[in-house]
Design a protein that fits this description.
374 residues; mainly beta; six-stranded antiparallel barrel; four-stranded antiparallel sheet; 8% helix
Amino acid sequence: MAILEFDSNKKVHLVPVTIMLNGDFYDASAYKAAPIPMALDSQTVYEGVRTGVSQGLFTITLAHQVLGNWVGEGNWVPTESKPPEVKKTAPTTPAEGLDKPPVLRRSGADKPKTPAAAPVPAPAPSKPAATQDDSSITVGGKVSDKPAGQQSPPPAEPSDRPVLRRGKPEKTESGNINTKAATAWSVVTTIPAISDAKNETARSYHYVLRSEQEQDLREKVQALAVKALRERSGSVSTASPNRVAKSSKASAAPQFKFQDVQFRAYDPSTTNEPIFVFEANTPVTDKSSGKELPNHVMLVVREDIYADMHVLFSGISDPQHMDSQPRCEFVDVVDAEGDGYGELLFRRTYDSGRAFSLYRVIGNQLWPLFEGKP
């Protein structure tokens, strides 16, 4: 499994994530790297899938490192693009005489006469003909016109044999490794990609909600996000619930303004039991510095049969604590195990880099399948 990143120049880059072997997940950027990881072998084909639906095919043609991380470059063919037309050629009939066995001839032997040419008497030879050498026998090909006594130069050495030279060896590119320096790019959008020999039936993991139902669920999940932010900022009182000043403290609690809100519903188990992903940015004032920090909050929530909400995952981050609390962003639901059920793919951004994580939904919790390292 990998990630296709589309930059602002409409170029596509493939970032390897994980490889599943015998039910276990390994880091695809380091698995069998000699020096190129196996996930970035040339001519490897990945299928870009967005929430279970195919978006196109990506074929690797080049592998290189960007800021110390392996990245694959290649050709991206979207699903809606028209495949190239193949010209049909008329079937050709085999020419006569091609299936006959080869004929051994000596050099200088007479060529077969054509019926169109009339026979012409040959002049009498002035000198006796030289005896032909057995070494000039050829099977097919062109007969050498050099005299028998002249020796031909030795055959050229194969180009792949080592050659001893003085001085330092020249730097050459080997395989599909790009040794040129590369810089990072700004990601516009991402699509998960799968490379598998199986041909699975595409299914969408989207869960369709009615407009009024979506609005009601969004408000419930957003209320859970506000609660998580207040717990993070320490504004929730730990005093006894029968305290008189409870209402005044509740009124003094900070208000949060959410920006870039994304609320999506998915059905990874395909059993009409949806999960809800809430993601937004909100400015929060830091108590120690007094500065307003752009916090990022993400929640994964599930509703049970009694309409009660259960938080499966909660992640809140700010730019000053990226080392201990990285920025966690939801990527997509992807079938990483090839069994038809979807898993949740997350991207974590640290101070030192980024990594990807893969989780399976089990009941009211997320079970980690793969945790990448930055």
